[in-house]
Amino acid sequence: MNQVQLGHSDLRVTPVCLGTMTFGEQVDEANAHAILDRSLALGVNFLDTAEMYAVPARAETCGATETIIGNWLAKHPGQRQKVVLATKVAGPSRGMPWIREGAGMTAADILASCEGSLRRLQTDVIDLYQIHWPERHVPAFGALYFDPAKDKSVTSIHEQLDALGQLVKAGKVRYIGLSNETPYGVHEFVRLAEQHGLPRVATVQNPYCLINRSYENALDESCHRLGVSLLAYSPLGFGLLTGKYDASGIEGPDAPKDGRIARYESVRKQRWGRLEALAAARRYNALAREHGLTPSQLALAFCYTKWQVASTIIGVTSVAQLEEDVAAYGTTLSPELLAAIDAIRWETRDPAI
């Protein structure tokens, strides 16, 4: 598996990244360590986590994922140099007072959160430190429209960059990134960094999959021209693009009880739980089978082969899932199949936006 450069940084990562938000909730520590071991054996060198994980977010499990990864690194001290380690500072509370008080995300919050992540991860430096969601109000997590009346920002982008710059200068963070961002946000972070000599964002981590290609509505041009790499999350559309809900739907007596949508009530009220998202997913899944692929192979190959994507974040709950997802790398999609994908998108648009 070839490695790719992230933005203007010197970070080189595999085009498949292991997402870990299930560690500490769906996946216990022993199985998480087995997944981490196998991931490295398969050649994946990129790990992504966050201070608020595990998910669904609860006070009892906040920080659990980083702790599990930190314990794994402590057991295998030689592995730290082999992996690019990414984590995230949570944005404003969003109903999670156990992360921080108040509605904002101050410079002091960023510094304190980084110290907490370093401690839980049992490492001296974070390779890629990302803002999990914007401090200002943006349409994200299922919201469709920007509403100026809801903008209660208390910390400017310049102040956020300055705090991140302090961490880079102190050697605690190598590079910085964004997540769940907009074209405006990416442009403003880059503009202010260049204007004030502060760290330049290397990446943006946003949803990108067959049922949510909103990244292609302007943000892809922004990132391309600014040299910011996309880390695509939810390539399987929270399980909708695996085919497991095709017959049963996401609710009801026959729906899989072990899936994330079944476990996460809040998710069913957001983008992935929409009936339109499931209807579109069923069409893509049927298309995959018509072309001799599994739904997962089609969905992952779509992300793995798109020029917009630097690395695709896969979230797994078992070694078997990990092996299946990594094995899909290298799958090619014919021009005819790509045209059929675009034809479905033209009709369904981005129902899981």
TrEMBL record:
<keyword id="KW-0560">Oxidoreductase</keyword>
<dbReference type="Pfam" id="PF00248">
    <property type="entry name" value="Aldo_ket_red"/>
</dbReference>
<dbReference type="InterPro" id="IPR036812">
    <property type="entry name" value="NAD(P)_OxRdtase_dom_sf"/>
</dbReference>
<dbReference type="InterPro" id="IPR020471">
    <property type="entry name" value="AKR"/>
</dbReference>
<dbReference type="InterPro" id="IPR023210">
    <property type="entry name" value="NADP_OxRdtase_dom"/>
</dbReference>
<dbReference type="InterPro" id="IPR050523">
    <property type="entry name" value="AKR_Detox_Biosynth"/>
</dbReference>
<protein>
    <submittedName>
        <fullName>Aldo/keto reductase</fullName>
    </submittedName>
</protein>
<feature type="domain" description="NADP-dependent oxidoreductase">
    <location>
        <begin position="16"/>
        <end position="344"/>
    </location>
</feature>
